[in-house]
Amino acid sequence: MSTVQWYFPDTIDEAIMYLGREKVVPHGGGTSLLKSGIASLNGLVDLSRLGLDSLKMDKGILETGASLTYGEIADSLANLHPDCILGKALGAAASTPMRNRITAGGSASVFPLWSDLIGPMAVLNASICVEGKNAGTYDLNSWLADRSLQQGSLIISLFYPDPVDWISYYHRETRVGFDYPSFTVSILARKNGSRVEKVRVAVSGGLDRVRRLGELEEKLSGGDVSAVDKIDVKRMATMEFGRKPSGSPEYLSEMAALQVERGLRTVLLGEVVSR
Length: 275
Ligand SMILES: Cc1cc2nc3c(=O)[nH]c(=O)nc-3n(C[C@H](O)[C@H](O)[C@H](O)COP(=O)(O)OP(=O)(O)OC[C@H]3O[C@@H](n4cnc5c(N)ncnc54)[C@H](O)[C@@H]3O)c2cc1C
Hints:
Elements: E1 5-7, H1 12-19, E2 24-27, H2 31-36, E3 43-46, E4 55-58, E5 61-65, H3 70-80, H4 85-92, H5 96-99, H6 104-110, H7 118-123, E6 127-132, E7 136-139, H8 140-145, E8 153-161, E9 167-172, E10 184-192, E11 195-204, E12 210-212, H9 214-220, H10 227-230, H11 233-236, H12 249-269
Helix pairs in contact: 3-4
Bound molecules: flavin-adenine dinucleotide.
């Protein structure tokens, strides 16, 4: 029977040395590692002594350490910045026991189709700070485009520029609260009276994994809020989905476009739309 060696580094350099060994990977919350199985691995690197568990706001940039759990991030933001979309999304993800295990770093490494992190990261233009073989800071698209960046890498923290003072909306499409979402909708807006200064919209869970709806953002930003009634929101919000337990690709595509429209009406017109 094969055994998996645990390593307990005290510094990032030491952790990276272990990660350079064959089939030795970081252990965040363990929720994905447990599901995928660890029998094929040679070793796991515990991250709990590396000090990657702080949440800071410096010069308007929010930094969340890789070892912070969804629950810790959601709780801190609920106190400090209750309207921040990141806190709203992570506080609604999965179940309480899961939120107390899933880490920001483990989540940004896997980015499953049901991720509650990826949509807020997309609308907040977040980046991922990595040490090790591919040390650097990556925007979300570059990180998603090249999965080889993960090998031998340790995610240190996630950066969110300009994360607060937005009107925010987050929707996760589920049948019951702790389900995996079949898609998520993230919307941020800034308004001045009836003028829309800026809108950002992202949908996750489709074939693109996460997509910013650029045409829609352009049509709405800089105009009057009433534009939401005049443009074809559904066409601009239509994207492709694969088949999921919750429905066919066509059904999910229709539902996601509908939820984008509802979200925009909530954020721009103040409408309260029931599900
Ligand atoms: C039942 C269940 C329900 C879930 N529901 C949701 C949900 O609704 N929404 C949601 O967003 N997520 C959900 N998840 C979580 C998601 O599926 C992944 O399990 C999670 O993103 C992994 O995070 P983790 O911290 O547990 O990572 P781990 O399992 O510890 O690690 C996952 C991978 O990331 C690597 N890794 C870990 N930390 C780092 C790091 N700092 N740097 C580099 N690589 C690292 C590991 O080596 C491994 O390859 C759910 C999981 C389960 C099991």
